[in-house]
Design goal:
The chain is an alpha/beta fold. It is about 25% helix and about 20% strand. The chain contains five helices and ten strands, in the order E-H-E-H-E-H-H-H-E-E-E-E-E-E-E. The strands form two sheets. It has a five-stranded mixed β-sheet. It has a five-stranded mixed β-sheet with strand order 4-5-6-8-7, with no helix packed on it. Helix 2 packs across helix 5 and helix 3 crosses helix 4. The protein is globular. About 40% of the residues are buried. It holds the Pfam family Metallophos. It comes from Hymenobacter duratus. InterPro entries: Ap4A_hydrolase (IPR050126), Calcineurin-like_PHP (IPR004843), Metallo-depent_PP-like (IPR029052), Ser/Thr-sp_prot-phosphatase (IPR006186). This is Serine/threonine protein phosphatase.
């Protein structure tokens, strides 16, 4: 089990400037960075957010984990052999397609990187995923609505702290003591905030950092 503190970031959704401000609170020399997925869609800077994540992975080898979210999974389906994923286009993908059209050389390497994102990061006391583990046989099925990329609704108490995103709040993290689930998707792409939490290796919440969304990240281009 890693003895490092863990700095966990919620759903970014293309909010590059907000993410950059939040990252100023991460201590890479002593903390692992875990992001819960949904780097892309809805905000104005999806390619830039993926590029930043890749650069951090290169700069700090072994110190970062960027998980897969349902938006990455749908993006990969859209650009995969099955072709257009109309659902994804309706709930954020259309803007991402347009952004990659402005920098087409990035699309293929970014898709390859996104396809390799893990579904979970864990140690003996922490279990971090995009949408969380529920009482269902489909937990690890990336396409199933009860899987840990898509689940909305009650989650299981897994005997350790779960940290999730996926279901946006109105700007503040939520905690369910019955299931020991901390939700840190604080609605960055809806104009609320991007949240990072600093946790000990044993799952103790040490600090919450809540960065209000930079308007440039979500405002319509001039």
């Amino acid at each position: 089990m890693s003895e490092q503190n863990v700095f966990v970031i919620g759903d970014v959704h293309g909010c590059l400037n907000t993410l950059e401000e939040l990252l100023q609170h991460w201590h890479p020399e002593t903390e692992r960075l875990v992001q819960v997925g949904d780097l892309v869609d809805r905000g104005r800077y999806s390619p830039e957010c993926v590029a930043l994540a890749i650069s951090l992975e290169v700069r700090y080898p072994g110190q970062t984990t960027f998980l897969k979210g349902n938006h990455e999974a749908a993006m990969l389906q859209h650009f995969g052999p099955a072709g257009s994923q109309q659902g994804w286009l309706r709930w954020g993908g259309r803007s991402t397609v347009e952004q990659y059209q402005a920098c087409p050389a990035l699309l293929e390497p970014h898709l390859a990187w996104l396809a390799c994102r893990p579904l979970i990061w864990q140690n003996e006391q922490l279990l971090i995923s995009h949408a969380g583990f529920a009482d269902t046989p489909h937990q690890l099925d990336e396409d199933h609505p009860d899987g840990l990329l898509w689940r909305r609704g009650p989650l299981l108490n897994m005997g350790r702290r779960q940290v999730i995103g996926h279901t946006p709040t109105d700007g503040d993290p939520t905690f369910d003591p019955a299931t020991n689930v901390l939700n840190i998707d604080t609605g960055a792409c809806f104009g609320f905030a991007l949240t990072g939490v600093r946790l000990s290796a044993t799952g103790e919440l040490l600090e919450e950092i809540i960065i209000p969304t930079h308007r440039i990240d979500i405002a319509a281009a001039e």
